[in-house]
Amino acid sequence: MGTVLKVFDKWKEFLAERVSQAGHAGMSEETISKLAFQIGEFLSDKVDPGNEQERVLKELWDAGDEQEKRTIARLMVKLVDKG
Known about the structure:
The chain is an all-alpha fold. It has a single domain (about 10-80), classed as Cytochrome Bc1 Complex, Chain D, domain 2 (Orthogonal Bundle), CATH 1.10.760.20. The protein is about 75% helix and about 0% strand. It has helices spanning about 10-25, 30-45, 50-65, 65-80. Helix 1 (about 10-25) runs antiparallel to helix 2, helix 1 crosses helix 4 (about 65-80) and helix 2 crosses helix 4. It is globular, with a radius of gyration of 12 Å. The protein starts with 7 loop residues before the first helix and ends with a helix. The relative contact order is 0.17. It comes from Paenibacillus marchantiophytorum.
């Protein structure tokens, strides 16, 4: 799975798939945001940023407190949900 997440666009696709699956399963927006938060935590811990976008996202994530990370997670959901 690490190789799939190396490219920022692939990562967005990965998140979009998870958000779509959660939406089809009837999960609430809050639950979907929690899922995005968990994905963000996973990425921060497991994926070495491979490009500038990933580095910026990781730095923002690492700099944030829990509330700010939840905001980033909600924004990530909006980013992938609009397309």
